[in-house]
Write a structure and sequence with these properties.
By secondary structure, the chain is of the alpha/beta class. The chain has three domains: 255 residues, Rossmann fold; 139 residues, Four Helix Bundle (Hemerythrin (Met), subunit A) (Up-down Bundle); 54 residues, no CATH class. Helices cover 45% and strands 15% of the residues. A four-stranded parallel sheet has the order 4-3-9-10, with helices on one face. It has a four-stranded antiparallel sheet with strand order 5-6-7-8. Strand 1 and strand 2 form a beta hairpin. Helix 9 packs across helix 10, helix 13 runs antiparallel to helix 14 and helix 16 packs antiparallel against helix 17. The protein starts with a strand and ends with a strand. The relative contact order is 0.11.
């Protein structure tokens, strides 16, 4: 079965066929680095990291770029409030972003372009748009003339008038039309800026992604991803300036957008007090638990993110790791066997991760019910679980480490306590043995007695 993905541009599922055989070029909009990223920023990272894993399984050459926006008015304000250089603040939060995303088992992208490293490409693209009559200069600003593109609005399926209603566009006197958007704007002496044919200034947000894609991936790419909130105006404007800069050449073959994330049933916002950063959540939950929660709904659906969902995700992972721990060895399935698995087929159907997770539980159930945990079928089930889970970036830990999750000194103390308990039982000091169990339980350590010995895990 081939991969099918929902294309925002056509508003339907399509069979994925790369522009070039066995080569895929994908770009996903990254963060604007002025603060620690919130959990809403993490959803596209996890979604498109999963897609990246699937694409690498299917194709030999996959180039995945995810940018860093390191120049923006929000960054400028945050740096001014902190009394520090913009570059210092941006570098600090870019590093924090990479650290937090790594905790979610996100693979490093092939390319991580920074906006400030592409000013030459941005200026060249703007000049080309001016020369072609798609941009104009007004009061030291350079603006894209949306009426110069006959099919502007085709991605979001909006008319020009509709776009102005409630859109995040600035209606200013220097614009010919309210929907025209900024390609270049002037900087005063206290603001960062670069020299250009139109004076000292800085680029517009939409232009940055177009220039970085052109530089690293070419005029046309296979997949462009991001959150649904980026469809308009950001991706609409990207498409417009890139296609007009390249004589109408197609910019993106498949547009993909993940759904919104709500917190406890409400839209996340600072005003509601439900703003959650990934760093804050990592203080209470393992990164893999957060990733599992983000994959629990199909990526195009809205996701209600809550403490309850995180606890359910932890319980699910405990169950899956518990099944894996029962089997000493695994047999990784042949590619043909994996590709007939219902979980794999679910991933091929527009990344249906909930169905794939359901299949993991079915495989775990088979292991748990087996009389012989070293049988060929059980070892194959474990191998299937790990192969399928790897496409989703979960079950990446050793099962023993997952359950124990303690440092070496803690582990030694726990093992010594277990030995003391065993000795107490041998000496028929059952009250002492119960005291040791209760002491360990009070520290979150649960014991499981079996004919082969005592195992422990963190509760």
């Amino acid at each position: 079965m081939s991969l099918k993905i929902y294309n925002t541009a056509s508003r339907q599922k399509e069979e994925f066929e790369p522009l070039l055989p066995n080569q895929v070029k994908m770009y996903v909009c990254g963060p604007t680095v002025y603060n620690l990223v919130h959990i809403g920023n993490a959803r596209p990272v996890v979604v498109f990291d999963t897609l990246f894993r699937v694409l690498r399984y299917l194709f030999d050459d996959v180039v995945y770029a995810r940018n860093i926006t390191d120049i923006d008015d929000k960054i400028m304000k945050a740096a001014a409030d902190n009394g520090e250089e913009i570059s210092v603040l941006a570098a600090r939060y870019a590093a924090a972003y990479e650290q937090d995303m790594a905790q979610l088992n996100a693979l490093p992208p092939s390319i991580v372009p920074y906006a400030t490293e592409h000013l030459v490409q941005m200026v060249d693209m703007i000049q080309g748009l001016v020369d072609k009559g798609h941009a104009y200069i007004s009061e030291q600003h350079v603006l894209f003339d949306v009426k110069s593109m006959k099919d502007y609005g085709k991605l979001s399926n909006r008319s020009l008038d509709d776009m102005l209603d409630g859109a995040r566009v600035e209606v200013a006197a220097y614009k010919r039309y309210g929907g025209d958007f900024i390609l270049w704007k002037p900087s005063n002496d206290n603001e960062p800026g670069w020299e250009s044919p139109w004076g000292r200034g800085r680029p517009g947000w939409h232009l940055e992604c177009s220039a970085m894609i052109e530089k690293h991936l070419g005029n046309t790419i296979d997949i462009h991803g991001g959150g649904r909130d980026l469809i308009f105006p950001h991706h609409e404007n990207e498409l417009a300036q890139s296609e007009c800069a390249h004589g109408g050449e197609q910019y993106v073959k498949y547009w993909m957008h993940n759904g919104y994330l709500n917190i406890d049933g409400e839209k996340m916002s600072k005003s509601l007090g439900n703003f959650r950063t990934v760093r804050e959540l990592l203080d209470s939950y393992r990164g893999e638990v957060i990733r599992f929660a983000l994959l629990s709904a199909q990526y195009r659906s809205e996701l209600d993110f809550s403490a309850s969902l995180l606890e359910q995700s932890k319980a699910s992972l405990d169950s899956l790791y518990g099944a894996i721990a029962l089997v000493n060895e695994e047999i990784f399935p042949e590619k043909s066997l994996l590709e007939s698995n219902p979980g794999y087929l679910a991933l091929m159907d527009d990344l249906n991760t909930p169905m794939a997770i359901s299949e993991l539980h079915q495989l775990a159930k088979h292991i748990n019910k087996a009389d012989d945990h070293n049988s060929s079928s059980v070892r194959k089930a474990k191998g299937m679980m790990l192969a399928l889970a790897n496409l989703m970036g979960i079950l990446q830990e050793d099962a023993q480490i997952w359950f124990q999750g303690a440092g070496e000194d803690d582990n030694n103390w726990i093992e010594q306590m277990i030995e003391a308990r065993q000795q107490a039982k041998m000496d028929k000091q059952y009250a002492r043995a119960d005291e040791i169990r209760d002491e360990l339980k009070g520290k979150g350590i649960l014991l499981e007695d079996s004919p082969s010995g005592t195992r422990w895990k963190k509760g």
